[in-house]
Amino acid sequence: VQLQASGGGLVQAGGSLRLSCAASGIIFRLYAMSWYRQAPGKQREWVARISSSGSTMYVDAVKGRFTISRDNAKNMVYLQMNSLTPEDTAVYYCNGNGGFTGGDYWGQGTLVTVSS
Q1: For the segment 6-32, what is each residue's pLDDT rounded down to a tens digit?
Q2: Quick check: 79 and 19 in contact, CB under 8 A?
Q3: Mean pLDDT, range 29-38, rounded to an integer
Q4: Helix (H, G, I), strand (E, B) or coil at 29
Q5: CB 86: neighbour CB atoms within 10 A?
Q6: How does DSSP assign 43-63, residue by residue?
Q7: Which of 86, 90, 104, 112 pairs as cysteine with 37 (C-beta 3.0–4.6 A)?
Q8: Distance of alpha carbon 57 from alpha carbon 41, whole angstroms
């Protein structure tokens, strides 16, 4: 199983980035996919989730600014991040959870740095 996150980088406040996560080794369409982030000196926190059926949830801090989506044909999950602020600076991780019948897997993380 491999989850490969990409798309991080340096962006100015107010800018946008799109993160991608490519999954392999799992029956992707059966997995709920999430994005988490870990800021320097802080614990990892959940950011957004998309269920196997496409339902989405977000932490309050990113509602209205971030959009999670998935492409089951490509085994990809995305996180479109708009109106970025320095508080969004973190390493972003993708997670795949198969529920009772599957495993729980993590990608390697991609760094997002938002400058003020």
Answers
A1: 999 999 999 999 999 999 999 999 999
A2: yes
A3: 97
A4: helix
A5: 12
A6: --EEEEEE-TT--EEE-GGGT
A7: 90
A8: 25
